[in-house]
Amino acid sequence: MAVLQTTRVGNGAYSSWWMTQLNIYSFSTTSTEPLYFHFKTNISAATEKIAALEAVGYNYGQTLAVRCFQAFYTTAYNSTTTKGSNYSGDGLFPNGVYTSSDNYACVRFYTSSAYYLGFILNAYTSYNYGQSVSILAASQNSTSGNYY
Q: What domain range is 91 assigned to?
């Protein structure tokens, strides 16, 4: 069985963080419901940062590929704003971003059926982010709004 490791891809002159991080989190479920997936990042909503999470995987129950992307921007005023999203494969959809109650950026995804759904998350950051992205909390639930 293969074990996936976090991979970090070049970041220019910086050495303590990475602009591209592959497989920062892996997720799988055999449950058909609930249909929303919330990921709380370590990105403070009180800073001005641009980042994105990309989900890549497979939705067996729908026989569809998963490849979706949610970009966002945090402001110095404790808010998180969507800056763009995209998907192909229809197995999972970007469903928005929000700020958690403790001021971290959160990303929400949605699917119409989660039966045997699995994906990894990749992270992309702007040159001025200055730290690695990690997932502080993850949840599969029925909340279409803010969860954290």
A: 20-141
